């Protein structure tokens, strides 16, 4: 298996200044695996849903090469449900409801063929479950990335700090980096977070792009200015899916290749926000990806002759 992802598979109620969606399909693992499916043919997810989750969505995921033998379906129970409302600037949102439902007692059991995956994405979910999945790997994967959010820092900081000791890449947004480190400056925050474990730190800054920190080096990449962002939900997960999908496909996690992975990650996230929920990722075709890479290139390319 090229890539294994753990994370939520969920229903979302979303309200943005551009509209709303009710009981839309969401969840961290859903966005990550969909984005990664543009890069890898052989990936699996570890998650849990209730029997209320639509079977045709699951079949669609399987059709994209996403193995679901690690997805537990709990009869008579409800899937994870999240409701959020975005502010006018779309960079900030308020969580209105987080109903853990099936996630409350989730004990993941990794199928045998997942346990030797080279790339492991610990998507947003309880830090205890993230640790449990990591512990079930037969040998240490080539690269382990983890995404989390303020919710888990508020309710499970100790468990989060334990799992951070064992991962390579942490992806969080700037607010979360400040909360985790207690530092306002992102450069200082990166130093504090490196000492917690992750050698690589990606700080997502929404419409302002992303920063990759590693051993005193920093790489900065912009976000594409989009005329009308419809719904930022899942952008962070789509970013992570593009990042890990590209690394798993190229099987190279040198710093130089990680920079390219950040480019693909940003490209995938730029599509995600163009429509509600998964709609844009569902409509996306392979041929649109290189076109968007060119748009990003033009955005940052300049020629200057210093006198
Ligand atoms: P993002 O916008 O990338 O942060 O991801 C949004 C997705 O994360 C939504 O589809 C939600 O279902 C899911 N989500 C929201 N809160 C949580 C949480 N506390 N743990 C795991 N997943 C969550």
Q: Keywords, please?
A:
alpha/beta, 10-stranded mixed beta sheet, binds adenosine monophosphate, 37% helix, 307 residues
Polypeptide structure, described:
It is a single chain. By secondary structure, this protein is an alpha/beta fold. Helices cover 37% and strands 25% of the residues. It contains 10 helices and 14 strands. The strands form 2 sheets. Strands 1, 4, 5, 6, 9, 10, 11, 12, 13 and 14 form a 10-stranded mixed β-sheet that branches. A 4-stranded mixed β-sheet has the order 3-2-7-8. Strand 13 and strand 14 form a beta hairpin. Helix 3 runs parallel beside helix 4, helix 7 packs antiparallel against helix 8 and helix 8 packs across helix 10. The longest helix is centred in the last third of the chain and has 18 residues. The radius of gyration is 18 Å and the shape is globular. The structure holds adenosine monophosphate (AMP). Adenosine monophosphate binds next to strand 2 and helix 7.
What fraction of the residues are assigned to beta strands by DSSP?
15-25%
- Mean pLDDT across all residues, rounded? 96
Q: What's the tally of helices? A: 10
Task: Please count the beta strands (DSSP E, at least 2 residues each).
Answer: 14
Largest beta-sheet details: 10 strands, mixed
Bound heterogens, unique: adenosine monophosphate
Span between N and C termini? 54 Å
What class would the helix/strand composition place it in? alpha/beta
Write down the secondary-structure element order.
Answer: EEEHEHEEEEEHEHEHHEEEHHHH
Low-confidence stretches: none
Label the overall shape: globular
Give the C-alpha Rg.
18 Å
Kindly state the percentage of residues in helix: 25-40%
